[in-house]
Amino acid sequence: MASSSSSSPIILSAILLFIFSLSSSSAKTSFRPKALILPITKDPSTLQYTTVIKQRTPLVPVSVVFDLGGRDLWVDCDKGYVSSSYHSPRCNSAVCSRAGSTSCGTCFSPPKPGCSNNTCGSIPDNTVTGWATSGEYALDVVSIQSTNGSNPGRFVKIPSFIFSCGSDNILKGLAKGTVGMAAMGRHNIGLPSQFAAAFSFKRKFAVCLTSGKGVAFFGNGPYVFLPGIPISRLQTTPLLINPVSTASAFSQGEKSPEYFIGVTAIKIVEKTIPISPRLLKINSTGFGGTKISSVNPYTVMESSIYKAFTSEFVRQAAARNITRVASVKPFGACFSTQNVGVTRVGYAVPEIQLVLHSKDVVWRIFGGNSMVSVRDDVICLGFVDGGVNARTSVVIGGFQLEDNLVEFDLASNRFGFSSTLLGRRTNCANFNFTSTA
Ligand SMILES: *[C@@H]1O[C@H](CO)[C@@H](O)[C@H](O)[C@H]1NC(C)=O
Ligand SMILES: *[C@@H]1O[C@H](CO)[C@@H](O)[C@H](O)[C@H]1NC(C)=O
Ligand SMILES: *[C@@H]1O[C@H](CO)[C@@H](O)[C@H](O)[C@H]1NC(C)=O
Ligand SMILES: *[C@@H]1O[C@H](CO)[C@@H](O)[C@H](O)[C@H]1NC(C)=O
Ligand SMILES: *[C@@H]1O[C@H](CO)[C@@H](O)[C@H](O)[C@H]1NC(C)=O
């Protein structure tokens, strides 16, 4: 340190301070998570799936509806948004372009979260009710738990997470206690993309829904469920892009952030359901095709598909001596449980098959994902009629996803699915949430 003695003391202490701050900041950032998790809980009254994200300064738990197909995270900023780290991106900034915003707002009220000048506008969208409003983009701290694949680990912070400020009036229809929606869609500012960008991991996530507490993983696997069962060997099929947004309100030319897959046929046991091929394709105005949705509690089918599907199921159930009983809304085909056996994968009913891009890639749906118990002795085929003008012909809903692990790989545009985990002697409620941090 001979040379340092000739330095002025002020410069030296500045250098020391600089070195000190470097090492303390590197100590803080040296933990790089390989993957993150969110707990996902089903709300029994709305049948929506909800999650909790820690946000703001000081951090508070923010309960939001988990939306597989949504575009961004939006929360109500009208009520109770208190944070010392809230800030607004300027119009035409990099953040605004990443958010895909095309508008610049002025707010004629006193400044507060959700009311700023020279900030880019957003369109928070309640995808349950289809109500959208105008809001603004904002940045704030988000904290989320890391995982090694079998347990949660420590929390990690993202200092400037991009979200959209919505308002009170579009919360209507969402599960009690929630203040917005967390979007998993394929947009640049969807949660999977922002998490991947913050920690440089793969743009990939996996979801395991249940009627209780399930889990979503972001980044790399493994995905391990009790009693120590890693879920791998997924079947995969391409993710398809709908060129036209399916949101309630959107900017002209924006692609849909939702996840579409190419169902080419639907079978019940070995019988193929007659379906107009036109309905299974996404046309140039964005109609048709099959998407995956967590905001639809049950799979929705365009009317002609629904009718053909239900009548074939009823025919095959009758052939197995399963007694049909009066329908219970919203379902169109219900049965007595009397002559129905029970297996590890649910009631022993005719197996439903969604045939994907190749005849060997088949999503098999067993009783556990096809039959909904509505009373002690009555079960219903858990599919609903989407009407004749359905925008999307088949919307695979929450009940059909439960206890299946599904993976969305945005980097390689592939969808992976496990089929029912009940067949692998575990289920989606079996993630070990005991933290090892
Ligand atoms: C935004 O600018 C307008 C017009 O200059 C002003 O009246 C208003 O108070 C400002 N709003 C905020 C939130 O700063
Ligand atoms: C995750 O960490 C826990 C606790 O240290 C350990 O028991 C488990 O085996 C780890 N899992 C993986 C997949 O590394
Ligand atoms: C796409 O399908 C919808 C619904 O069937 C139809 O109204 C629309 O005209 C179709 N668009 C094109 C370009 O074929
Ligand atoms: C259905 O019931 C009829 C009459 O009771 C019986 O002959 C037939 O074997 C049963 N079929 C099946 C598949 O159980
Ligand atoms: C869950 O993980 C914790 C921490 O690794 C472990 O102590 C506990 O035994 C696990 N629970 C079960 C049911 O295996």
TrEMBL record:
Protein keywords: Secreted, Signal
Primary localization class, coarse: secreted
GO cellular component: extracellular region; Golgi apparatus; plasma membrane
SUPFAM superfamilies for this protein: Acid proteases
PROSITE patterns assigned to the protein according to its UniProt record, in alphabetical order: PEPTIDASE_A1
All residue ranges annotated as the Peptidase A1 domain in the record: 49-418
GO BP: proteolysis
The protein's name: Peptidase A1 domain-containing protein
Species per Swiss-Prot/TrEMBL record: Capsella rubella
